[in-house]
Write a structure and sequence with these properties.
The strands form 2 sheets. The chain has a 7-stranded antiparallel beta sheet with strand order 3-2-4-1-10-9-11, covered by helices on one side. Strands 5-6-7-8-12 form a 5-stranded antiparallel beta sheet, covered by helices on one side. It contains 4 helices and 12 strands; from the N terminus they run βαβββββαααββββββ. The chain starts with a strand and ends with a strand. It is of the alpha+beta class and 215 residues long. It binds glutamic acid.
Length: 215
Amino acid sequence: MCGIIGYLGNREAGPILQKGLKKLNYRGYDSWGFGLKNKDKIEIIKDVGDFEKLDNLPNIKSNCAISHSRWATTGKISKENAHPHTSEDNKIAIVHNGIVENFQELKKELLSKGYKFKSETDTEIICHLIEEYSGFEFPEAVRKSFLRLKGRNAIVALHQDFSGLVGVKNGSPMIVGVKNNSTGEEYFIASDQRAFADETKKAIFLDDNELVVLN
Ligand code: GLU
């Protein structure tokens, strides 16, 4: 069981996600990571081991970011296999909870199309699938990719050229938090409400096969 938390709003995402991820500690994890979007790129920070290292992360300015604590199911415990995973052009980053049951079949298909893999995870295939659908708007590309997955999965995806976050789930929990402050609206998306309970009590529980676009 892993943890996901994403943030979109007008505050610095890094500290909000660090705090949120720590609240998901109880779920167990072997590695962790962050994908923080700034003007030029999506910065990825990830590592194996415990959350204590989170207190010394570089300060990356971002208002739109995702984070993850991994419980390895497909691929060993390693920094390369920690989430987020990225597309070949590094424009797409995703965090994932679950197991893609048809991962071998999809990986074979993507390898035959020339995609190169940086990790051993089932998660990375989802990034390449989204790349495959790059002719579509980002939320639609995520939707089409998600429909190809078998198993109980939840993902949150980020694209360098898309303003916002896309989340979708089937069989794995995903909850959106909404907070109104004096300067606008903020959104949280997590696998457990307690990741953002200190910020807002306004929560929307996604149904299976429901996709949400936060922007
Ligand atoms: N199957 C994915 C992996 O092994 C996600 C595991 C999880 O839910 O933490 O990386």
